[in-house]
Amino acid sequence: WQGHSVILLVPDFTGPCPVQNQLMHSSDGQGYSPSVPGSYSHQMPAKVPPHQASGQYNYSGSQNVSQLNNFQGPGQTLNRPPVAPFSGSPVQQTGPGPQVLPPALPNSAAISSAGGFPPGASPPVLSNWQYGQTPVSQPGGSQTSHLAQGTGTGSAQPPSSLSGNTNPPGSYQYAASPGGPPLQNSYMKPGSAPPPVTQPLTPLHPPSRPPLGPPPVGGPPLIRPSTLRATVPQQFILTLCLPLATPHPSPAPPNLKMNRSVGYSYPALPPGYQNTSPPGAPGVQTSALQYPDGSKHFHQPALGTNHLTASMAGLNLQQEGLKPVNLLQERNILPTTLLKPPVPNLHEEIQKLNCNPELFRCTLTNIPQTQALLNKAKLPLGLLLHPFKDLSQLPVVTSSTIVRCRSCRTYINPFVSFLDQRRWKCNLCYRVNDVPEEFMYNPVTRVYGEPHKRPEVQNATIEFMAPSEYMLRPPQPPVYLFVFDVSHNAIETGYLNTVCQTLLDNLDLLPGNTRTKIGFITFDSTIHFYSLQEGLSQPQMLIVSDIEDVFIPMPENLLVNLNENKELIQDLLKTLPQMFTKSLETQSALGPALQAAFKLMSPTGGRISVFQTQLPSVGMGALKSREEPNQRATAKDIHLTPSTDFYKKLALDCSGQQVAVDLFLLSGQYSDLASLGCISRYSAGSVYYYQSYHHKHNPVQVEKLQKELKRYLTRKIGFEAVMRIRCTKGLSIHTFHGNFFVRSTDLLSLPNVNPDAGYAVQMSVEESLTDMQVVSFQSALLYTSSKGERRIRVHTMCLPVVTTLSDVYLGADVQAITGLLANMAVDRSVSATLSDARDALVNAVIDSLSAYRSSVLSIQQPGLMAPHSLRLFPLYVLALLKQKAFQTGTTARLDERIFTMCQVKNQPLVYLMLMTHPSLYRVDNLTDEGALNINDRTIPQPPILQLSVEKLSRDGAYLMDAGSVMFLWIGKNCGQNFISQVLGVPNYGSIPQNMTHLPELETAESIRTISFISWLREQRPFFPILYIVKDDSPLKSSFLQNMIEDRTESALSYYEFLLHIQQQVNK
Ligand SMILES: [Zn+2]
């Protein structure tokens, strides 16, 4: 993340804007105005502020009143629950006595309500994907826009098929525009005046120009000449923005000096500006302001020799990219360093400003001009996003005016064009907008009259402090509710010690401020609340045994201010693990506990963290075991769909009240993650899974939980968030992947957003992109920070449009394609069958390589030819087929498979790729050659090896990094030096069988090895366990299973797979 300077403009500014916003002046006095185009008026559901004067909860403002008709007000509280004074002694047993879980029932009965596709009744499914069109059957794992939409091929999709459940249509439509299709791209409330979307744009263009044609005259070509071909008008220009050369007003540096004027210049500053304070620059000292006098020109990137060289370089790159690779001949195609994403073929001045591919990535960095061309390429078009990633440098802008397109609400960005100093043209809808007065002043350069040098047009990633029109209620406080399974089974695992201790250790690091609230619920067959009321000498436990009709006793003291009640909270965390040690209660009332948690959180919104160790057995949401171990290998009839829609419905209720649920499943037994996971998926939560967690039997899992929980508790969090992804007119987004709920056409509801979540979307080319040289994509994430600020994080990416198939292949991003296909394959597994999904993955390779062979290659050669950009495609798809989510013929447990599918859906691409195709390094001969130096640490960078036992030598030691797990394989004849200097044991035979840690030794070898492994671990939000594997180790098979290129019992080797593909391609 380099190349962007930090422009921190009053970063922590939280008070009212010193410069009164014009929009606010025109508002109706309630802090925002629904009729003002600048408002996000329906982005948050209308909500009742917490603590109504009446003491009653009033849900009249939300759309899900009917869901809550069982809700009892607090007036009944004291009549019903037996209230036991908390004493730290064994809990009062009010539920039924210990019971044995019923034996697993045959699965046929369990799925009746799932509404999915029962085995044998699947709709006919094509074995390949129709890219750019809505899938044949609605996938269960992703969400398409489910409201009527004016554009998009998904419009025929009925709302009720959102996830194949049985909800009546309309039950969960949170859009604020009931009674009619929402205006596309409109933020208007129903009844308010429509924005000027439909105004014809033609008057703003010269009559000869097509309405949506390229921006007008002047400037250098945006795209490098090598791809421009003769068709690009010479006068084409995208933007007049230059990167900031210096933060001071000064002439452009020589190398950027214009050699061509755009044909107009600006008049001198009006005299009135010379000595007045510039508008809208809070935090900038006026005394330091200087206005250079005289007229200004827009400086253009020069097309000098440097650029010519760059173009030639691009040409070479292009030829390299087009060079076909015969995969059957070239065996060493895996790069020795991590594969870098392709660089879009844009003019370097534009590319310099483009969004970091770690945040925003497209499967095709050359966008096909038409859907027909996209169809021909047989590759999926889509975006992969990591929108809330932790960034070391993030420009934050505090400004009373956030400049957005009046028509499509796009945020001004580096890829807009300035027609002149007072007008800018939107790069998504091409509307010409006025530049607001405030925007004329650049607080970074302190120069007036340089709107194109504002940070908003110099940074593809930027964060705005949102003014009050972006709020429908005051920003919520951070609220954290922890829900703990304390059944006998849970206590047996010993997890509560780890969790409570980690929470105690990190209590002061929870993101928040003086408003932070916290609360706790525990449950077995009954639900236990904890009053942490100020003045109590110890926490008070309240037991609710009526799980059929859950109510909240004493609602006001269950979620309390963290700072003001810290001692009571610490007391509770210290005692909780001991409180239930004698419990014999085996039942689990997870569903009712979640209902209680939802009710408790509804007035504010916030985060629920639920820890569960078994299959829920009583009350709403009780589940029956559906796993049949003997069927694991067949890949048929496995239960990937939820067996009840209880968890999804509850999640949607949570989403409507800005509550997200994160699930920590710590279980040695089947817990039906397919059903339970819905609570997190639709509420924008996360799922963590610790298989066979046990504090004594599985100590590495304890360390993993500690480390990951620490990250979870202390990482950044955004509350009451919504995300919208926009793209240039002509492109259309139709399917979304990730954990969220699609609230209206393209608005993702994210009650919580965290920096470790990834998202993907599929797109199609709705209207031909004729006359367009580039298209842009913009994601905008509106959220409330833990400090109570409303912020908007915006990422914008610009990509060139191409007209030929070879250019489409040239720009293919094979990792992004693999990631998107993995998401699509999860959906296919759920909506159809696992084998359908596997077939579709294989066909994706066959179809694209066939199309390449028949339509691009001029000379037919023997072998299996692939474009250079796709040379790793068959390998990555084979890796997906061998990955836990999609593999067959293994003993992968059902919950493990489902969890891997959750990861595919929710992880940023970089982790998904590591999980799919691990990195293998030889580590017994690490050197400092080519090492990284970070903070006085030397980190060796060994080359990445192919995943084949052929690459292993018995006298070496190899590290396999598979993302959430690492294996250190020690060859039988591994050098004595490594064994003693790194492992700290005298010989191979004395390496312990279950070794999972490297001793920290004072040897150069040990320091290098540990430094490398720690560096790998530091770069991810989860903690990979390191297993040290010997030849006779039981984990050897897990290690070998990741050898993607080798043959396994049930899967082809890479070479066999290539032969299979070749056979199909040549058909
Ligand atoms: Zn626009």
UniProtKB/TrEMBL annotation:
Region Disordered, residue ranges: 20-226
Chain ranges of the Zinc finger Sec23/Sec24-type domain: 402-438
Domain of life: Eukaryota
Domain Gelsolin-like: 939-1005
GO biological process, one term: COPII-coated vesicle cargo loading
Bilayer topology annotation: Peripheral membrane protein
Feature: compositional bias, Pro residues: 192-223
Protein name: SEC24 homolog A, COPII coat complex component
Subcellular location: Cytoplasm, Cytosol; Cytoplasmic vesicle, COPII-coated vesicle membrane; Endoplasmic reticulum membrane
Domain Sec23/Sec24 beta-sandwich: 718-802
GO CC list: COPII vesicle coat; cytosol; endoplasmic reticulum exit site; endoplasmic reticulum membrane
Lineage per the UniProt record: Eukaryota, Metazoa, Chordata, Craniata, Vertebrata
CDD domains: Sec24-like
Stretches with biased composition (Polar residues): 20-42, 53-79, 125-170
InterPro entries: ADF-H/Gelsolin-like_dom_sf, Beta-sandwich_Sec23_24, Gelsolin-like_dom, Gelsolin-like_dom_sf, Sec23/24_helical_dom, Sec23/24_helical_dom_sf, Sec23/24_trunk_dom, SEC23_SEC24_subfamily
